Amino acid sequence: MTSAPLGHPVYRDMPATIFEKMSARARETGAINLGQGFPDAQGPEDILRAAADALVSRSNQYPPSGGLPELRGAVAAHYARHQDLDLRPEEVIVTSGATEAIAASLFALVQPGDEVLLLAPLYDAYLPLVERAGGVARVVTLMPPDWRIGRDALEAAVGPRTRLIILNNPLNPSGSVVTQGELAMLASFCVEHDLIAICDEVWEHVTFDGVRHQPLMAFPGMRERTVKIGSAGKIFSLTGWKIGWMCAAPPVARLLGRAHQFLTFTSAPNLQWAVAEGLSKPDTWFAGMRDGYQASRDRLVRGLREAGYAVQESAATWFVTVDLAASGVPLDDIGFCNRIIGEAGVAAIPISAFYPDAAVTHMVRLCFSKSDAVIDEAVAGLGRFRASLG
Ligand code: GLN
Fold first, then answer.
1. Which residues contact 171 (CB under 8 A, 6 or more apart)?
2. Average of pLDDT values for 379-388?
3. Contact indicator for 31, 339 with CB cutoff of 8 Å
4. How far does the centroid of ligand 1 lie from the alpha carbon of residue 37, in Å?
5. For 252-281, what is each residue's pLDDT tens digit?
6. Which spans in the chain are helix H?
7. pLDDT at residue 146 above 80?
């Protein structure tokens, strides 16, 4: 019998994701889960009702692989209204969540040996997906406190084999937003080096303090070389629905559709109809959603600061970061997360999990898309823990 190792090398020694691990430990210990990003509310009643109605009254057979025409049209109309983009419905492909859209984009666009630029901190799926697609990742490291993207670092990482860059904006886990100047720089960089940008913009609507999302696709030269990815889970606080989409000019969209048809082929039709309805909600709904999360952010930030933590306020996402070093906490991020789950009754995510080389180890991410009572209880536990350190 041969003893060839089992499985693809990318997966062989891969652990479960940090989000799975922390959520499992929170379930086991009863800790408050401020780790994996998900809201604890039920979600918008009318969208839930639309999905329930569609489930019992409309077709439950395969929708077209590219998505229901109603949803493709709704996504295009939504981006025209909110981001001044001029997408046609054929340029939108519905996916089973943004993670599938990222996978489909990479499988469609990476040729063996192509280099792909990634910016760390990065969502943990990017790197293994690049490698499984046959690409070679080149990681540019962004550092706190401002996580800025510098042209010099990009120029140092780019080469003749580089074909793609993945940009997450707004950025998870920092909660920072890429500036107008950085976007203009990224656009000229992509044009100059003939790169396609895969833009993971799942947090586009969850922005605070009046910040308005700007899609890289709208910058000069980017309309034909951008894949713009969005997520109904993040927009409507329904993370379990796994309805996302990817938008691109027709020659790119065609390839994306081919990759998608052999990943999931399609997604549940009732959820697609409900999301199509949701996307046409009035501006006041989106403003209200943002105000609600901003109030939760402010509550968590205030509580943590009063408890003795140095907190970086976020401009977007459902997360804030605590700077352990600046808080005078003598622990690294993993040590802190391991201690607080038992001693404070709170699960969090170490920021080093977002860096392939663990370049940052003094920050942790906390999720605030929770009720006031849950935030207050978590703050009380973290306050007791901070006090116990002296
Ligand atoms: N995006 C989520 C987060 O940052 C995690 C998604 C997942 O667990 N697959 O918390």
1. 121, 142, 147, 177, 178, 316, 317
2. 98
3. no
4. 6
5. 999 999 999 999 999 999 999 999 999 999
6. 9-12, 18-29, 45-57, 69-83, 98-109, 126-132, 151-157, 180-192, 232-235, 250-261, 269-279, 283-306, 324-327, 333-343, 372-388
7. yes
Q: What percent of the chain has pLDDT over 90?
A: 98
Distance between CA atoms of residues 11 and 6, nearest Å: 10
- Non-local CB neighbours of 134 within 8 Å, separated by 6+ positions: 110, 111, 112, 113, 114
DSSP label of 176:
B
Token duo for residue 28: 């086991």
DSSP structure class, residue 262: T
Nearest CA, atom 1, ligand 1: 37
Residue whose C-alpha is closest to residue 287's, from 210, 220, 373 = 210
- Written as one string, the DSSP assignment of 147-163 is ----HHHHHHH--TTEE
Q: How far is CA 346 from CA 221, 272, 304, 379, in A?
A: 46, 35, 13, 9
Which has the closest alpha carbon to 317: 208, 182, 180? Answer: 208
**Ligand 1 centre distance from Cα of residue 152 (Å):** 30
- Rounded distance, CA 312 to CA 188, Å? 30
Tokens of 278: 């949701």
The contacts found for 24-30 with CB under 8 angstroms, 24 or more apart, are 25/341, 25/347, 26/341, 26/347, 29/341, 29/342, 29/345, 30/345
Mean pLDDT of 363-385: 98
Task: Give yes or no for a contact between 242 and 48, defined as CB atoms under 8 angstroms apart.
Answer: no
Average pLDDT, the chain: 97
DSSP reduced 3-state for 78? helix
* Residue 26 Cα to ligand 1 middle (Å): 15
24 token code pair: 């499992």
**How far apart are alpha carbons 354 and 142 in whole angstroms?**
11
How many Å apart are CA 270 and CA 247, to the nearest integer?
21
Contact of 264 with 101, CB cutoff 8 Å = no
- Model pTM above 0.90: yes
Q: Residues enclosing ligand 1, CB less than 6 A?
A: 17, 19, 36-37, 172
Is 1's pLDDT higher than 80?
no
